[in-house]
Structures are given as structure tokens and as C-alpha cells.
Amino acid sequence: MDSLDLPHTSSFQGGSELFLRNVFENILQTYLKKNPTTKRIWELVQSVDNEKICYDHFTFMTLKIEGYGIDSMSSFFMDNGYKIGGGLDFPQKKLRGLWFSPPDIKIPENGHGLSNGPLPRLVMGEIIVDELSPGSQEIIRKYLKPAGGKQALLSSILGSLIWEKPTWSEFKQIAEENELAAWAFINGYTMNHLAFAVHRLKHRFSDINCIIQYLEENGFGLNQDGGVLNG
């Protein structure tokens, strides 16, 4: 793990850059603990040619209901310089999303990772719970109490649900209707996925096809849905 050593002079506006980077580091480490396959890929990429990783974006999934939606997670980051960059809508999935651009800060020439590299963009989605079936709504509302979303950031850092863990049958019922809703219901504010900034890699992995080949050679089966290079 990189040490979070920052230059004495920072161009960061809106709070403490070191604090924000520490928040990201804790969110990342929680995510890697919960996703051992991703952690292994993360380690493999860095093991070749002493490669240094930068992050393109971090993605989070939320449930749009009584204070648990995007706003519950985005408010902290917007207070620390992030700005809304645009919207994403997927009506068939009952999903609405926003992406956020990071604050404008100076990055050292060899800056990398979360220590002193570019801050990741953020993508946040929210399942429109009111558009789910009455049965799924009833289950979700039983667990998500009003105002609980105020603890969203802490939940993401700890990787712990704010609400009680639902039963398997409840999870399965929601999953049969909407897999993303079920994922958010069982994982809460834990990061959904991350993406490396491939264009910032310095060695052979700067070619995405080399990364794909290397991962396949090391036994990782890649998702073929929509093509391996599908974002």
C-alpha cells in the first residue's frame, strides 16, 4: 500500500486533501478485502515492471428511498471539491446515475495511486425503489429506516450495512426482479467496482490488450458479455 505522503504545498480547495485521500484509501482497502479476485488482479498488475496504478473511477450503487440515494453518498465528496459532470439513465433497470469530476489539483510528474496520483472520478447510481414491484418495495422499506443514509460514507469505509442483513429468500425475491437492486440491498454502500486509468500505465500494460492477455494467461476468466473490452 502506498504511504499517503503529500507535498507540503497543495492546490486542493475545499478541505484537507490528505483527509480525502485517506477516505478513498479506506474505501479501496475495504473493497479489496471483500473482492479477493479483484485484489489479486490489482496485485498482479503492480507486480510487472514495478507498474504504478492510477484510478480512472470508483463506482457506488445506492437505493433511492428516504435519504439513501445518491445524495447520501455524494454530499461528502461535493463538500470536498467534486462536481457533477453529467447524468446517466437506464430506465429498463430502474437506474439513475450521476458522475462526478474530481477537484482540480496539481499532480506530481510521477504521482500514482491514492497517495499523490490523480483523484478518481466517481460514478454513483441509485435504484428507483418506487418503480419496483410492491413486494420488493415492501421488503426494502422494512429494512431501510428514515435518515439512515446519513451514515453512508462511514458504511462505505467500514464495508458494513447500515440496516440489518436481509434473509436469503428476501434477497432472492428482489434479485429475480432487479439484480442491481439486490446487490445494493445486500452490499449497501461498499464500492461496486473500480477502473484503472490504463492510459497512465507506463510499461507494456499501457496497451489494454496486453493486460487482457496477461490476465487470461494467469487464469482469470474475463466477462465476455458485450465483448471483453466493454467498459
Automatic annotation (TrEMBL):
Gene3D superfamilies: 3.10.180.50
Transmembrane segments: none
Catalytic class of the enzyme: oxidoreductase
SMART domains according to UniProt: DUF1338
Alphabetic keyword roster: Dioxygenase, Iron, Oxidoreductase
GO molecular function: dioxygenase activity
Cofactor(s) of this protein: Fe(2+)
Pfam families: HGLS
Signal sequence annotation: none
EC number of this enzyme: 1.13.11.93
InterPro entries named among the record's database cross-references: HGLS
Superkingdom of origin organism: Eukaryota
Homology family: Belongs to the 2-oxoadipate dioxygenase/decarboxylase family.
Entry protein name: 2-oxoadipate dioxygenase/decarboxylase
Source organism (scientific name): Eruca vesicaria subsp. sativa (Garden rocket)
